Automatic annotation (TrEMBL):
Signal sequence extent: none
Pfam families documented for this protein: DeoRC (PF00455), HTH_DeoR (PF08220)
Transmembrane residue ranges: none
InterPro entries: Carb_Metab_HTH_regulators (IPR050313), DeoR-like_C (IPR014036), DeoR_HTH (IPR001034), NagB/RpiA_transferase-like (IPR037171), WH-like_DNA-bd_sf (IPR036388), WH_DNA-bd_sf (IPR036390)
Record-level Gene Ontology MF annotations: DNA-binding transcription factor activity
Biased amino acid composition, Basic and acidic residues: 290-302
Domain HTH deoR-type: start-end pairs: 1-46
Protein name, per record: DeoR/GlpR family transcriptional regulator of sugar metabolism
Disordered: annotated span: 246-302
UniProt keyword annotations, A-Z: Transcription, Transcription regulation
Highest taxon, organism lineage: Bacteria
Length: 302
């Protein structure tokens, strides 16, 4: 249970991590000693300004050019007639606007914003999860959302989050959102993470997708001085995550970002999905050359 002050109860933490309250209480004390969280009566919160995440109005004005470029590139991975899941977020909302042009598509989502972007698409079927509306990001969460995803199987999941590191993977600062995102991941053969460079190297409270389950990362090119983002990209590539880098300026008319702006890396881990090779060729993500493998390394050396 998440309380009004943002605290998460020890009982709920024990349920999420599947361990005893005694173990959680011990770990909470250790994390408090290191300054990584603050204890509350029967629960814990992140310290300082990390207790609450930014709402949709704030997020929608951050890194807008980068999100547009990422959405343009990610849309090229989707085939006509595919069934996919799309999670909540401002970047996934941008993706949904482009998916409206893909005929025969079926999109399962817990995001009202994603559904709205696709509401008037003639040949796209939108399937909403159940659940309780979380007003800060217009997403359906809770047990109703998770249960509605049981038994579902689609080709790809497109997810965003609050932070991404090679060590923990994708994470978010809200426990309810994290639980639904994990259910979305379980429904997909491949997981595509959409994250702009400001999220690289950022670690938040609740893990949603561990690194070994991330098939591909679509991101933008970090600034030359951003060593943290470049280092994190290299670490993700070393763990086998395929990385596609879009130009922050995007392309007019929603076209794909030029191939020279991308850095695909080998290493899908969740099995081959029919049409993947054709998609890679169509999107300019063909078999990586030695030069392409060094793309992320070049970013790090700047």
């Amino acid at each position: 249970m998440v309380r009004a002050n943002g605290a998460v109860s020890l009982r709920e933490l024990a349920r999420v991590v599947q361990t005893s309250e005694v173990t959680v209480r011990r770990d909470v004390r250790a994390l408090e000693a290191e300054g990584l969280l603050d204890r509350r009566h029967g629960g814990a919160v992140l310290p300082g300004g990390f207790t609450r995440e930014s709402g949709f109005p704030q997020k929608s004005h951050l890194a807008t050019a980068e999100k547009t470029a990422i959405a343009d590139l990610a849309a090229g991975l989707v085939e006509e007639g595919e069934a996919i899941v799309v999670g909540a977020g401002t970047t996934t909302q941008e993706l949904a606007r482009r998916l409206a042009r893909v005929p025969g598509l079926t999109v399962v989502t817990n995001s009202l914003l994603v559904a709205q972007a696709l509401a008037h698409a003639n040949r796209v079927e939108v399937v909403m999860t159940g659940g309780t509306l979380r007003g800060s990001n217009y997403a359906l969460v809770g047990s109703g959302a998770e249960q509605s995803l049981q038994g579902l199987r689609v080709s790809r999941a497109f997810l965003s989050g609050s932070g991404l590191t090679a060590e923990r993977g994708l994470s978010t600062s809200n426990m309810l959102s994290a639980s639904v995102d994990r259910a979305l991941v379980q429904a997909a053969a491949e997981v595509v993470v959409l994250a702009d460079h400001t999220k690289l190297g950022t670690d938040t409270m609740f893990q949603t997708v561990p690194t070994d389950l991330i098939t591909r990362l679509v991101t933008d090119e970090p600034p030359a001085h951003d060593d943290r983002a470049a280092t994190e990209l290299q670490a993700l590539a070393d763990q086998g995550v395929q990385i596609a880098v879009a130009g922050a300026s995007g392309s007019p008319g929603g076209e794909q970002v030029p191939a020279g702006r991308r850095a695909p890396l080998p290493g899908p881990r969740r099995g081959h999905v029919p049409g993947t090779s054709a998609l890679r060729s169509a999107a300019g993500l063909g078999d990586p050359t030695t030069a392409e493998r060094g793309r992320v390394a070049d970013l790090r050396r700047r």
